[in-house]
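Entry:
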Amino acid sequence: MRSGLSAGRVQSVATRMIVEREEEIRGFVPQEYWTIDATLTTQSDAEFTVRFYGNAKGRVKLTCEADAKKVTEAVSQGQFSVSSIKKAKKKKLPAPPFTTSTMQQEASRKLGFQSQRIMKVAQELYEGINIGSENGGVQGLITYMRTDSQRVSADAQAEARAFIGERYGEKYYPDTPRVYKTRAGAEDAHEAIRPSRVEIEPAKIKKYLTADQFKLYKLIWERFIASQMESAVLSTVTADFESAGYIFRASGYTVDFQGYMALYEESEEESRQTADEVKEEKNIRLPAIKEGEKLGTKGLCSDKHFTEPPARYNDASLIKFLEEMGIGRPSTFATIITTIISRNYVKREGKSLVPTPTGEITNKLMLESFPDIVNYKFTADMETDLDRIESGEQELGIVLSEFWKDFEKELLAAEEKIKDSELEIPVEETDIICDKCGSKMIVKNGRFGKFAACPNYPQCKNTKPLTPPEQTEQKEKKAVVADFKCERCGADMVLRTGRYGSFFACSRFPECSFTKQKTKDIGVPCPKCGSKVIMKNGKNRTVFYSCEKYPECDFSSWDMPTAEKCPDCGEILYRKKGQALYVCHNKACGYKRAVEKED
């Protein structure tokens, strides 16, 4: 098809899931259904709303306007009465502490983070952050973030119990510590993801964390504390109301005891609405009523709806599906999504994952030529075989031989079948007309992203940027103008961004190609000659420091020099790159100390 593509037992299965969901959406036929709401009144003039449910035999679907009209005409002639009231006490258990999968799902739903971003922030929290001398300086804030286990150490449970008792009272923790069962086949080498120290509350260290770090740490901390708290107690009520042989229903609940809900509530997964799953009215506040009581009718309202197709996968729902199918490991979920997007099999539309034409053709090719590789069961069974090899229950050579016998045949057959055929990826047309040959230009992918190209290449090699001209003009207007002129032509210099970071370029580009690296004076004298030290961008946008008189003075450093002297030997102190530490330039000295407050 084209270079740079790949296939495999995990990424191809993930792509298959997304393609099949898209095909299901395309083939979905909406079904009409109707709902009827009745506004009822008690003798004390209290009003409340109930929804049509069915009849004495059970739920009845209203599939057209005639069905709805039949019900409304019948009940409008009659009177409503309370046919049954069911009350119950219900305990709602807290969610277990996070595993890698559940953390990614919840952070995706609640915080809107993508899986790669979640794991990056979790890694930062795990490796350690300077949270101030009053909190112990540099601290790893969470336990290891790649785990299948829901196990929690006895020490952590005791810390959580003491905190809950002090903050909320004894009735907010259960008589015995909660123990959550880890699913079969999960790796139990590490605990569940939890705060390393319960007493480090998110609010106490907010000023030391980035916005992402604070949000994720707060989520992990609250989830863990809630997992060790007492269950919530709800009073539920479901009341049925009869009129002309039809049943209307209202249900709701009140919270008698908050329990863990005083701190945290797990988010619910988005789901589609079907004709069989008409949404009930939730948490209706019912007035004081009793069975057999007659009620007045203030109004009837019928509405037409259509069932909705299944939702596209997002990070959270795809990770959940992969975990349920036994595909991949906690450490690979984020990588799987990143890989299929970077290969252009899948693209993001908002939070949704949508297959591209390349992804759909690749999936078709894999299903036709390598059905075993993209089979859900094969992928899960291979995970089991790998675990058995690791534990010594299975031999590596036997597993590979069994796989190779069938794969070799499939590979030879695929090569023979495909060698004479051409796989064409459907082109995406634009509204841009080629100003050289008059053809409608198409979208192409290049090293710097998408662009418009003439479909008659190589006869016509015309290309255009896909950015609308008005957007380009707006960017030009917002360009930062430097306080110095171009040394070659005297025109204004403007700030640009390139592959190595920010730089200044002549505003007359491309007529004048003069550029100048962007630097910043950090207000520190050069340790070698006493001139200014400036900050520069290196390759891959890395930052380094050098003397402004470079190359006459050859001072340069990845670590940032400071104006402060070492209290032990008098040498200059440096701010260590990527760490919240000051270190002495004299390696023989070894002096270092934590950065107490970020600049």
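The first helix runs from residue 11 to 26.
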